[in-house]
Specification:
Blueprint lengths: L9 H12 L7 H8 L3 E12 L6 E12 L7 E7 L5 H17 L5 E7 L8 H17 L8 E5 L5 H14 L26 H14 L2 H7 L9 E5 L3 H14 L2 E7 L2 E4 L6 H11 L9 E3 L14 E4 L18 E3 L8 H9 L3 E3 L1 H4 L2 H15 L8 H19 L5 H7 L5 H27 L3 H19 L5
Helix pairs in contact: 1-3, 1-16, 3-16, 4-5, 6-8, 6-12, 6-15, 12-15, 15-16
Amino acid sequence: MAKQIQVPNFYTTVENFFEKAAPYTGLDAGLLAQIRVCNSIYAIQFPVEIQNKVTGKMEVKVIEAYRVQHSHHRLPTKGGIRYSNNVDQHEVMALATLMSYKCAIVHVPFGGAKGGVKINPRDYTEEELERITRRYTYELVRRNFIGPSIDVPAPDYGTGGREMAWIYDTYRTLKENEIDAAGCVTGKPVAVYGIQGRTEATGRGVYYGLREACADEHDMKKVGLTTGMAGKTMIIQGMGNVGSFTGTISQEEGDVKVVGVGEYDGAIYLKSGINIEKLLKVRDETGSITNYPGATVYSKEDRNKILEMPCDILVPAALENQITTDNANKIKAKIIGEAANGPISSSAEEVLLKKGILIVPDVYLNAGGVTVSYFEWLKNLSHMRFGRMEKRFNQTSQERLLHAMEDLTGRKIDPELLRKVARGADEVDLVRSGLEETMSRSYGFIHEFQKKHNIDMRTAAFAYAIKLIGDDYQNLGIFP
């Protein structure tokens, strides 16, 4: 009988990555011990009335939920809320820990936090989900685990703008005199004090991060690829918010060919390429990606085989522990971009690194969401949308400059070209520009740290983040 390989839980995997990175930080053992632990853990059990699907009667169901604040070296703490049957305390602790490191890497002044509600949102009606979300928010308010200067949630797996709007409305109702109430949560719809570009932010950040990785000639030579994104083949596991935007943006702006997609109900592979926009329409119209014309289809039971198909870039954008020692040797990708949190176990990573695969780690790559959440939080605190003060001035200045060029050259500029060139930046333009700058600079910092110590990229990212947090503790006098 084959021996069953024990997969470490997600928190153990994060702990293993910490241990591997700690020697490169130069920090005192006591300070490292403080950075490692989660500062506050709130485990909640609350009752909600739910309609029995069989009898139609209202019944009380007890919901299990969590909020974990990993580090208070910066305030507020920041991190998403996920709805999943897989939620447990260790998973939320792992995600909160990653958030601290993620914020440090992209130089966003938050401590890390995370929330989880142990439900499958597909099992509940919209009215029931609203009831659960509002009650969860009430519990967070009651214990002082939410607020624009305390702890700011955001969307995660199983949640989105709708749930964030419910959280904001509940918080505002309970804190009616708080002028900055809109800053209590990010990822809200634009009409409810959100920010343009937030929905696509994590996926766009994944694209920017992969673009940076593929621009390095030395690293691409090591994996046997040319520089640049154009023409590279990609497989995406997960067509939620992150996976779908990663796919569409990679195709539209990077000229990448997506050859495989995996979802919870099956997977497809098509060597000639899959149009992600078309795929999303097929899913909306038929209920499944497996109805995409011409593709080889894998059943729900075999859906993870898509991870083992040949490609240049593999993007796990679903849940943690998707690549373990069970399947690590079967991975054929040359680059793995961790769009999800913790898709590779620590033991599997050792196998992948020995195979020469370049891993762009989650702690950096999916930080686009928290980066734009930071922009949204700043917008909420300033009570003004980005671009309002300067857009018209910049547009007018550019028009004057172009008209001066016309006078000097005696040639008229095409009106359509004038319209495109002489324009001020809208909010979404500024958000995308800020995100691109953040992902580019952060990659550079990690890459320099990696080269200096001759270590893999994840170890470099963890060590770089831990050192920044340690510096904060010392510089701010929190840890004398």
